# Entry
Amino acid sequence: MKGSPRLRALILIAPLLFFLGLFFVWPLITVITQSVSDPAVSRVLPRTADLIGDWDGEGAPSAEIQAAFRADIVGATDDQAVGDVTRRLNSSKSGFRSLMGKTVTAVRENPDVDLAEVDKRWADPAFWKAIQDNASPYTDSFLLAAVDMERDSAGSVVAMKEGTSANFTILMRTLWTSALVMLCCLVIGLPYAMIAASVTGWKRAVLLGAVLLPLWTSLLVRTAAWMIILQDNGIINQVLTGLGITSGPLALIYNRFGVVLAMTHVLLPFMVLPIYSVLITVPGNLMSAAASLGAHPIRAFLRVLLPLSLRGVISGALLVFMTSIGYYITPALLGGAGDQMISSVIAEYATRSANWSMAAAIGLILLVLTLALYAVYNRLSRDPIQAR
# Structure
């Protein structure tokens, strides 16, 4: 009977566990698996993949390996899968696209044909090396490519040639843009939270309502509103030109300024609320006590109020930063070609090039970064009295 309460409790939380497993755990496992999965070659060329692992890379492979390769070509009836293998091998060794097209046709007509007679490139160990490098169903090439790294012929991790990939550059741009948004939210959010915490009654309600209002509106609607405000004939440019401050419209949209401004507006509540929740626990007479002891207001703020609110400041900064690194809609609509963030690259790989492994690899890097920041946020946001 002792187990009955536990069993009833387990039954009660079973729907929650099922929901978490289906919509959280399983997608995470899928992303992690996809980011290190490369089964294209091993699925279409299984016999070759089993044998070529022992090849020393010197000269042409043995007759057994070449026979296995021909048998795999004959048995490969899915032309789309063969095309996937061709694209994968061509990315490792240029020229595989034409080579595989010629070879598949020749081998299917004559399964015993000499590959070197079909094309002399089969006598080049570099093409067989490409098959050997991609024979394993698991690889770290996508994770390395996500940060513009690759393995050379010796297996060492080296940087890609300049101009080959821009994933790392865009990732750094994402982190820099997120840091700018975090800084802007801090500059605006800290004094705003201090004012909201210092007033009472309807004044506090109005201030908090103004902060929470953006959360009640769709992100797409808020972004579209900023597009209308910031465009050349928008409200801001019309006011500036109407007052004679500028002779023409300013470039406020399709650049970094528009992206940072709109993201700051959207994410400001995530900075204000953590700081406000800490400030309302600080006794209101501390600043007055510091002033009565002769402290200048600025000194009293730096030595008394700011250290006490630091936990909320750091929590809000991490929360804004974590949220902004995954933004897609706002940079896509308000930014230019040089302002797109890493989420746009993930969407490009997933929707246009159908390279799900590359999209999963970049997504995994963002996931690890976000989890690390969340661990810091979770630790800093805990009540220090309860943490003891």
Remarks:
- Strands lie at 149-151, 157-159.
- The chain has 20 helices and two strands.
